[in-house]
Amino acid sequence: MSAILHTDSSESLVDRYQQVRQxxxxxxxPLETEDYQVQPMDDASPPKWHLAHVTWFFETFLLVPELPxxxxxxxxxxxxxxxxxxxxxxxxxxxxxxHLSRPTVAEIFEYRAQVDDAMVRYLSGSPxxxxxxxxxxxxxxxxxxxxxxxxxxxxxxxxxxxxxxxVSQKLDTRVLSAPGWRGxxxxxxxxxxxxxxxxxxxxxxxxxxxxxxxxxxxxxxISNGEFIEFIQDGGYERFExxxxxxxxHLASLGDDRWRMPLYxxxxxxxxxxxxxxxxxxxxxxxxxxxxxxxxxxxFARWRGCRLPTExxxxxxxxxxxxxxxxxxxxxxxxxxxxxGESVSGLFGDTWEWTSSSYGPYPGYQSFKGQLGxxxxxxxxxxxxxxxxxxxxxxxxxRATYRNFFYLPDRWQFTGLRLARDIT
Length: 423
Known about the structure:
By secondary structure, this protein is of the alpha+beta class. It folds into two domains: 10-158, Four Helix Bundle (Hemerythrin (Met), subunit A) (Up-down Bundle); 181-421, paralog of FGE (formylglycine-generating enzyme). Helices cover 30% and strands 12% of the residues. The protein has helices spanning 10-28, 47-66, 77-80, 105-123, 129-158, 224-232, 244-252, 293-302, 310-317; strands at residues 181-184, 187-191, 208-212, 215-218, 264-267, 270-275, 278-281, 351-357, 383-386, 403-405, 414-415, 419-421. The strands form four sheets. Strands 10-9-8-11 form a four-stranded mixed β-sheet. It has a three-stranded antiparallel β-sheet with strand order 1-4-12, covered by helices on one side. β5 (264-267) and β6 form a beta hairpin. The longest helix has 30 residues, at 129-158.
């Protein structure tokens, strides 16, 4: 197992548990009952399912094996809200999560309340070391699903012709900082985590050495205005900038062929995008988001650059504080960095695509037991993203954190930052 994030007392651990759980409820506060049921695509899940699944996690991996006398809320939930843990049982098919009107939303909230009451009793006792570890996994897991809840909900609302707002918000409009580059000598560097301090996921370990050639990393992410230049230069029609697999994917989309980032539309000479605050004109100075790995790579080639590797990105982030536009800011959308701000902080606004395939580090060991299915089984055919986004909890992000998605995926808050070799 990975390291445990120790707390000063059982009370502080209970407080943290309740804070994370309450944050999920707070994110659902603007929803109407109808919103909880919709599954906008196979890769997304209804809010109702997210609420139940994170609760299922604590019930299945902690309460059933660790709390004497605990009785499951409903035996059928073991199947309905299992995501992909084959070691636990046969999960209900993901594409059909939105087909079920029952259990009701009210029953899901009752389910959460029962599990929360039991978890407080458990945490107020003398949890085992293994139990404390599972609590940390569960809390980090719920923070991941808070982000997924928002991105899945945005896909639902953003594809509704009414373009309804999730919340009322006013985004900052600021002056875009001048582009720049930060150079790195490279050489033999250490990346990853040894889990000696604080909680990390198994895929961040172990700490190990890699060799990097000298490189430069852009001082800020690519903006919407810069991405529009790519669009207007025929970037989506010029095969020479696209990976073969990406060009084939574009052709496979037919009438739905991409011509701009997800949630964008063009009207005359203007571009509009859907945000969680409703549709508005594209802020030319804000970081571009909702682009696939294919689009990020094509843009980088069009600019005569490349995407950074995940190790280059991590080296640049190692000496930087985890500060930026996160969930706590309330913007729920990327914002431009003001002129004069240090923009090499790398964190927040959008997850940044790298060119690195998602795979195990040398000496990688997955979590023990049933939790071994958490990360390792997905180490194929995906790219690593770094840095967190405007809907990530700041406490959940660190320099070693490895997010991962398939190259065609666009519904997450994903953008890019350029890199280039020093010759």
